[in-house]
């Protein structure tokens, strides 16, 4: 994951060259089984009304912590205890929050359209799943999962990694949070790219558009011909790239949008 370019360098991006893809024939957009027609990208803003802090902004997590201290592989190598405790606290806090109307509306949409919806989330909480969504890609990993640095396996995890539990697969005491840090490659990028290339509608909910590659999904979806809609509390860095942007709390905007689709 990369920080956004602010008037300087262009973020590293594994996407196809837009100039070339623009000429792709419309017939290239296939709808094989399992290929979603709607892709919803969610960010911290969708969980804000549940009480999970966002990253940027006045009370954001990155106001209280330096990214470099807790969200890079280098930070973990330098001070694993601090990093483990940071994520242990966030994991423990999950037990105090519940899905909100926006999560539930997306689960209702999935119940109505099934495989035609894919939720791609940058969030590491489990609120989409607890609301009932089943087709969710956690591109930045999950708090309720641990990654073994010895054997590379990802296993469900609910405790405190600062207690130094062994890996349930290989027994090594070398577990880290299963989250994607700055400088690491997000999960399932190939699946996401395929979904973006095939969808008819791309909707972004509660994300600042400040972190790539997710911030570039709107442009990729557009290149392939999708209609694009932003639902966010306020105008974001990404707003100019969307066909339409609606501003307000996700707990209102998402149920409204879903009811337009399924009623
Ligand atoms: N409803 C809708 N949007 C909201 C709400 C709300 N109730 N509250 C806040 N927002 C919006 C903010 O206006 C902001 O644009 O959500 C966005 C949250 O932005 P960030 O805090 O930057 O979170 P996100 O975009 O998910 O961050 C991306 O950055 O630090 C990394 O790995 C981290 O996955 C994260 C990534």
TrEMBL record:
Its main location: cytoplasm. The active site is at 140 (proton acceptor). Binds 1 zinc ion per subunit. Belongs to the sirtuin family. Class III subfamily. NAD-dependent lysine deacetylase and desuccinylase that specifically removes acetyl and succinyl groups on target proteins. Modulates the activities of several proteins which are inactive in their acylated form. 2 residues (Tyr-87 and Arg-90) present in a large hydrophobic pocket are probably involved in substrate specificity. They are important for desuccinylation activity, but dispensable for deacetylation activity. This is NAD-dependent protein deacylase. The lineage of its organism: Bacteria, Bacillati, Actinomycetota, Actinomycetes, Propionibacteriales.
């Amino acid at each position: 994951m990369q920080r956004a370019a602010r008037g300087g360098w262009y973020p590293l991006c594994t996407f196809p060259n837009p100039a070339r893809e623009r000429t792709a024939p419309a017939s290239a957009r296939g709808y094989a089984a399992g290929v979603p027609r709607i892709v919803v990208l969610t960010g911290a803003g969708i969980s804000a009304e549940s009480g999970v802090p966002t990253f940027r902004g006045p009370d954001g997590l990155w106001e209280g912590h330096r990214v470099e201290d807790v969200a890079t592989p280098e930070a973990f190598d330098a001070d694993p205890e601090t990093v483990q405790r940071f994520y242990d606290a966030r994991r423990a806090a999950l037990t105090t929050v519940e899905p909100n109307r926006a999560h539930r509306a997306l689960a209702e949409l999935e119940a109505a359209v099934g495989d035609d919806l894919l939720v791609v989330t940058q969030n590491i909480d489990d609120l989409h799943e607890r609301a009932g969504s089943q087709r969710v890609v956690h591109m930045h990993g999950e708090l309720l999962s641990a990654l073994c640095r010895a054997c590379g396996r990802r296993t469900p995890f609910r405790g405190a990694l600062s207690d130094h539990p062994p890996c349930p697969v290989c027994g090594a005491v070398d577990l880290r949070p299963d989250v994607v840090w700055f400088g690491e490659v997000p999960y399932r990028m190939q699946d996401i790219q395929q979904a973006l290339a095939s969808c008819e509608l791309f909707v972004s909910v509660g994300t600042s558009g400040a972190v790539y590659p997710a911030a570039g999904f709107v442009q990729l979806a557009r290149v392939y011909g999708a209609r694009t809609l932003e639902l966010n509390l306020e105008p974001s860095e990404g707003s100019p790239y969307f066909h339409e942007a609606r501003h307000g709390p996700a707990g209102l905007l998402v149920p409204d949008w879903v009811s337009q689709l399924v009623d």
